[in-house]
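[retry 2/3] Myosin motor domain-containing protein: previous attempt timed out, resubmitting with same input.
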Amino acid sequence: MDVLTGGNGNARVWIENHPTEGWAPGRVDSVGSNGLYVVVDDQGTKFEVAPENARQVDPNCLRGVDDLLSLGDFNEGALLHNVRSRYFNDNIYTGIGSPILISVNPFQNLPGLYTEAKQKFYRERSAAAGSGEDADVPPHLFSVAAAAYTAMLGDARNQSIIISGESGAGKTEATKRILTYFANLQRTAGATSEKTSIEEQVLRSNPILEAFGNAKTIRNDNSSRFGKFIDIEFGSSGKLTSAKISNYLLEKSRIVKQQPDERGYHAFYQLCAGGHSLSDIGPTLGLRSAYEHSYTAVCTEIDGVDDASMLEEAADCMDGLGFSKEEKNSVFQIVAAVLHLGDMQFEEGDDGSVLPDGALTDKICELLKVSKADFTTTFQHKTLEDPFTKKIIHMPQDPTSSSNTRHSMAKHLYSRLFDWLVWRINLSAAGKGGGGGRKENTKKIGILDIYGFEVFEWNSFEQLCINFANEKLQQHFNSHMFTLEQQLYNEEGISWSHIEWQDNKEIIDQLERKPLGLFCILDSECLMPNATDDTCLSKIHSSFKSSRVVYKTSRFKSTNFAVAHYAGEVVYNVISFLEKNTDKLHADITNLLKSSSMPITRTLFSDPRFAPDMQAQAAQSRPGAPPAKRGEPNQRAKQNVTVSVMFRQQLDQLVEDLNRTNPRYIRCIKPNGNKQAHEMDSLDVQRQLRCAGMLESIRIRRAGYPVRRPFKEFFNRFRLLCPHVSTGRSLDPDYKELCRRVLTDVEAKFQAQRQPVEAKSWQVGRSKVFLKEELQGRLEKALGEAVKVYVVRMQKRWRGSRARRKYRVMRGAAVQVQALLRTLRSASEFQKRLQQHREARAALLTAEAELPSLRSGLAAADEQLPEERCVPAEKDMELIQLEASAAQVARRERDAQNELRECKDELEAARETADAAERRGAQKEQQRCPERASRMQR
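[retry 2/3] Myosin motor domain-containing protein: success.
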């Protein structure tokens, strides 16, 4: 406290329980008699803080850090203010080590946040980091996806990404971004923008699922009203090969009724706005504006959303997924029929209800392709079987009963259509093999996007199931982060400080335990023939008299009860609980829709995939349950299978699947209830962070050892860092001691580099090495540098060897070229001399040809000599000149012949020299590389 009592206004402390900020940093202004007066920077309001509660503020927290584990002094105030300050700087992602990401919904589009360049950046950084986390990479959805993908390729375990948070926190958008990342994985810098077929199917499923499964609620304009688990399968090369979607608990009641300022499913409004543009069936749908239909009249529009264009996008995606024209038209016809069912009015008649609007009846029968007579009978009478006489009884229905039948038909039509759409999307995205079973050498990444925790003014059975699902997921998170962590440390003999955390096991037990859990009471009441919502509520109150989890509250209506969930108290209204839990569909409706001439409608009510025998499915799902004998169905089990039973079985299977993966968590936070950008309700955000267990997560991550590797695996990976530590010739080396030596030597090296390792950054357990993330990152970085040194050395040797081989080849080739050049030069000289010889010989032949004429002339001159003795001297001179010319010609001929012989001798000598040089070169090359020499000789 000495640093705080200076009163210079520079010391900063946390103000706890701030009326608007929850936690707020303040500056010490002065010291009072009972504590410190702190001035909050923004408002200038003074708060009194007791000395023992004055916690100093880490300056890094005020700036906002990427990873909350890097904060030196951590508390809830640091967590809240760090998330808050980053949010107002448009940094909506904050990391808690590698497995947890906090994502705050910005309620705006942030430019450049999800570009392909950003995807490439995280893909390359994750690949470079390997199994270690790159601490320099800013937190992002893509960093989580990239880390999961890299871990999937490097480890033998499947991965999962669990996206959770309250309604409106941005879960659906996060799921879409992650799916886009995985679909774009195969793109490279030189690749085209087109994706492969399976990748296209994955992305095209989103608009369809959102249209038919999302709706506007008070808290969220695009709220997912169903849960989905997307199983993405990759081949051994890392290429996306198939995808499968599992859907959970579509909110059926929203089809027929919505709260004020809420809408039904988007598909209803999209079809009303743009159905007329469907060239094939638009005019036959008979739809009007959304506010003119009973099921869509509460709220018809969403600001900034064009329903008609959204319908066009969904229809295009159906085409892209390979929907036939008949399938697409049938989907829209069923949706239109559901809307028309909501407009049906009934009047009292002599023999059951009467349908006064014949045109509306005709339109519904036309859309569903059913008989009008059968359709009318279904709403006029209800067929029952006398349990004693087994006779069929046709009981007239009053308008109220007929109206309930209408709602039941609408809900089952739409919900089963949604199941069919999911099945059809899976069929397109199954890849080769049709998705029939697990393929060899494949790995998976699962993405869970399930409803967030919900609290409304009117909370019914759907909210109870949704919040129970969140309890189960929170328990999985607690089990993975806390329970299993502590258990593993104890088993391995790792010393660490125990951390207290909020466990919701008691809540889950009181909701689902047998035989007196809340859901068991609901299921048992559904068996009672005279049970009502009131009797069910009375049984709940009597069974949980002393419970702290489920209790009666006097602050609300007598039809309410409260549950203390991990995220806070929720008050449920028991009205319609039994009806929604039973969810019965009368046989008359099933038989009517089975008789439809439309294949999809008929399939929805006859195919077990969309109309399963609940008794058989429940019996198969119970471990150890004996198979029912033919003709002896378990009637009690058949009656006892309710919506809650089926939903809990799905949740148990989901948690079991998640337990077989290495999970990563994205905790989505809703900053405010007004859906406005740059606005934060700090108190509500603080509550969400508490409910998500973020504070405990950070504490255990900092105190624990999130990285653990078996001894042999650790040694084989990091042995390059200490080359002198080796197994020697031992067949059974002591890997535990080897790992300890490696870590000790590495720690000493870091110390020598003046980069000391944090105390207790590693421990050696009984079967594994335990590391903190900071040390793991440094080890991976050091390993990368060591590998780089070895790689450079190997490259140096390889390049030298290649250069020497190249030199020998080039030298041999040069010798051969030189020999060839000498041969060519000799041949050129020979040709030159040969030409000279030919010219000399031609001159000689010319002279020889002129010689006879000269001789004849000489003879004629000799005959005339007596007559010309007057000039003897001239004649003698001419004769002498002719003889000299002849002698000269003869000498030239002899010289040319001699020169020709010399050229021939020189040419022969040059040829012999070249042949000898070539033989010597070939012998040397044959000694170096026999195969290359053979080819050169050939």
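[retry 2/3] Myosin motor domain-containing protein: Confidence is low (pLDDT under 50) at residues 188-194, 613-639.
[retry 2/3] clearing retry counter.
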